[in-house]
Amino acid sequence: QSALTQPASVSGSPGQSITISCTGTSSDIGDFNYVSWYQQHPVKAPKLLIYDVSNRPSGVSHRFSGSKSGYTASLTISGLQAEDEADYYCSSYATTTTVIFGGGTKLTVL
Amino acid sequence: QVQLVQSGGEVKRPGASVKVSCKASGYTLITSDITWVRQAPGHGLEWMGWINDKNGNTNLAQKVQGRATMTTDTRTNTAYMELRSLISDDTAVYYCARRSGVSWFDPWGQGTLVTVSS
Prior knowledge:
heterodimer, A: globular, B: mainly beta, 11 strands, 52% strand
């Protein structure tokens, strides 16, 4: 598998909640609770949002939350704000490739 | 605070090599692996591998095995990633990051743009 599957784009209005999915296989998401999520603003380095499926590093807003069911992980952003507009990437530990990233999802705040 | 500062951008000819540095501050490399991730223009993130400073062991993605070498210098607390036999598809921003868990990375360096062009 070359990459985890994410929707190319999602959008939402300020104050709304959105969910970004990340689908893998039995060799990655389905077999390990090592899913992480990153936020990347244009020409900036990625920033860790969620690790090990649902853990939030200190300093990351409580509006970001993660979950997993079967082969699909999800990132939910509640109370959408203009500053949330960015690209989001999921990642998982994998038996075949060690680490695999998703293709990325562009979030537009309307 | 923990910070990773990378070397500046590079322009290389096809077939050449490039070596990107990543200097850590606020912690010592020996306590955590350093991972390298690249991002081609307009594309997503691609994991390249990681190195353990304590024993020098590396785990490289299959795609770069044989062309990439990851090293560390304990004296200067700096990690390096060298990529040889460059092709145009290697044009990308290269990031180093601290491996803070099994497969999560924080913080990240600011990135180094490597352009391969004739």
